[in-house]
Amino acid sequence: QQQVKQSPQSLIVQKGGISIINCAYENTAFDYFPWYQQFPGKGPALLIAIRPDVSEKKEGRFTISFNKSAKQFSLHIMDSQPGDSATYFCAASTRLFYNQGGKLIFGQGTELSVKP
Amino acid sequence: GAVVSQHPSWVICKSGTSVKIECRSLDFQATTMFWYRQFPKQSLMLMATSNEGSKATYEQGVEKDKFLINHASLTLSTLTVTSAHPEDSSFYICSAQKQGGTDTQYFGPGTRLTVL
Question: Does B92 touch chain A (CB under 8 A)?
Answer without folding.
Answer: no
